[in-house]
What does this fold into?
Amino acid sequence: MNTMEMTQYLAPGRFLDSDHANVIAFAKQNAGDTSDQRAAALRLYAAIRDGIVYDPYVNFADPANYRASGVLASGRTFCIGKSALLAASARAIGVPGRVGYADVRNHLTSPRLYEKIKTDIFLWHSYTELYLSGRWVKATPAFDRALCERAGIKPLDFDGESDSLFQPFDRAGRRHMEYLKDRGAFADVPFDTIKAEFLKTYPGLMSGQGLAGDFRSEAVAQTLDRPQS
It folds into this structure.
């Protein structure tokens, strides 16, 4: 990839707002010594995975939940916002970052969320791609350690060298995540495209202010075990 192509993955975007003062401060505080980009990226990954609560009960129609600075302000969001924050934070310390997407079948949900969307297929599930040691590496900071521990899922680690995507089974051997369709990588969150598809597929999530309640407690207490299709 030439320098011109790489520039877009270092520049601030509408949602990967790496020039926002709070994103810059967060990145500097959590990355530490940035002379070792891989080590700095690992520290950012851990800070975002565990320091930002995974919460699919947020308002999916609110662009703040997709924007790095908005995620920092609220301290909670779903996978798209957490991946945007990791990519933006990486850019803020000089590491090229972009966001990737896939459609997945996610078997960790809650009865109320399932009732709202009527499916365990989640469109536009997001991860981050970071350019380290001359190549792109995938990292998925979505599920925080506290949620994983309560749900019996091993927290997803990232070593900066190999792709880190959700495992297909949890610790008990139950299906956890199944990747169905790769949507590719983007320089910024394609919010308008995602919003349009969510409005069509999940109309119940795109009205109101999101679901009230604590997803972490509900998902742990009532992880669904539906027949596999």
Q: What stands out?
A: Residues 57 and 211 are 5 Å apart (CA to CA). DSSP finds nine helices and six strands in the chain. Confidence is low (pLDDT under 50) at residues 221-229.
